[in-house]
Amino acid sequence: MNHQDLINACREDWDAYTKHQFVQQLGNSQLAQPCYLHYLKQDFLFLKQYARAYALAIYKARTLADMRKALPSVHALLDSEIGHHVTYCSQWGLTESDLEGEPEDFGTVAYTRYVLDAGMTGDIVDLYAALAPCSIGYAEIGRNLINDEQTVLEGNPFASWIELYSGEEFQKGVAQSTAHLDELLSEIDKTSQRGQNLIEVFRTATRMEIAFWQQGLDVVN
Asked: Please, are residues 105 and 46 in contact by the beta-carbon 8 Å criterion?
């Protein structure tokens, strides 16, 4: 099996995630600012837990090669991605202390702790299956938005977000991590109990992504 098998097995949930109203409103410049600010603060808290999950991947790895493959993600998150997020948030009037002091919303807690639990109770493949919807999904969302005729870039306050996730650097990074996931999945039969369990992990994480978008919209509802 490969990552596409995981997506195909939960297509309805996957489309609800990658084509969520939050994403559509972000693309056409109609997203309310309070929704976006809430998302930015929660995404900072999410990234901290995401770094913990990749650190867990090193712990869970059985080979030195797999340990090495997880390390760049930990470094990238701690050395650059979280820092870039803090810098970006400052453009929206949010300081690092604002971000650190923000309480985790229910969807953030549920999603991040589910990923960590999947990794703790399973093996490294379970962990990567739980992590995969985030990176693969954002890459797909970025491609969809940049190619959508309904997307507005000029005058759109969220244009830099679209450009980041549709950009070559992000797309290349996701392609590399997806290739690693496919290596791990390659010897697993999708019809086996193991394959079905991984599909369920991926589906649950995808549903958590839907909830993460929705909690942003719920700020004004």
From this structure: no
